[in-house]
Amino acid sequence: MHYSHNNSKQSGERGFTLIEIMAAVAVLAVLMTLVIPAFQSYMLRTKVTDLKSVAYGARLIINDHVRTYGSLPTVEDNLNLNPQTPSRFLEQVSWDESVLTIQGNPARLGLKNGDQFTLIYEPDIRGGNVEWKCTALAPNSLIIPRGCEDGGA
Q1: Which secondary structure element, helix H or strand E, spans residue 124, and what is its range?
Q2: Mean pLDDT across the stretch 117-131?
Q3: How, if at all, do strands 148-150 and 129-137 pair?
Q4: 3-class secondary-structure state, position 126
Q5: Are strands 90-95 and 100-104 parallel, antiparallel or unpaired?
Q6: Partners of 95 in the β-ladder
Q7: Which of 22, 31, 74, 84 is least surrounded, with the fewest CB atoms within 10 Å of its CB?
Q8: Residue 21: alpha-carbon gap to chain centroid
Q9: Are 86 and 80 a contacting pair, CB within 8 Å?
């Protein structure tokens, strides 16, 4: 029997060298350091938008009260400001006769220990209409929704 050993690769076959693979991994690592924080920020802004929708619904209820009764509601009016469809990111909605507060759930928002997110809406009645001033208390100014001022956190 005659055995023929051909150790040469067929023409056209070529593998990657260790240096090429390491370079590709390094490029991917750099891209990931840029992409992951941007994605996390995007996800947090999406959750904040959900809270802003909760605030919109609560503001509509208060606006309807002003149109109907000509004044802001009192605590005794016992308005239900909680959304009909609960938000996973909502901790609490409160009204103290002059300020609407939307408190986010820090754990569900993915905030670090001790960080909070709160939207504060202050009404101003002008000619029977309610205009709202929004202030956001946020750990990161990048997640403050449009139309809200940075209240610092």
Answers
A1: strand 118-126
A2: 92
A3: parallel
A4: strand
A5: antiparallel
A6: 100
A7: 84
A8: 37
A9: no
Q: Which amino acid is at 64?
A: D
Amino acid at 87: S
Residue 7: the pLDDT is: 55
Half-sphere exposure of 23 (CA within 13 A, CB side): 5
From first CA to last CA, the distance across the chain in angstroms is 84
Which of residues 10 and 23 earns the better pLDDT score? 23
Judged by DSSP in three states, 50 sits in helix
Question: Exposed/middle/buried for 145, CB within 10 Å: 0-12, 13-18, 19+?
Answer: middle
C-alpha separations of 152 from 32, 72, 104, 108 in Å? 29, 27, 15, 21
Residues in Cβ contact with 84 at an 8 Å cutoff, skipping those fewer than 6 apart? 57
Report which of residues 41 and 119 the model is more confident about: 119
For residue 76, what pLDDT is reported?
81
Report whether 115 contacts 153 (CB < 8 A): yes
pLDDT confidence of residue 86 = 86
pLDDT top residue among 80 and 122: 122
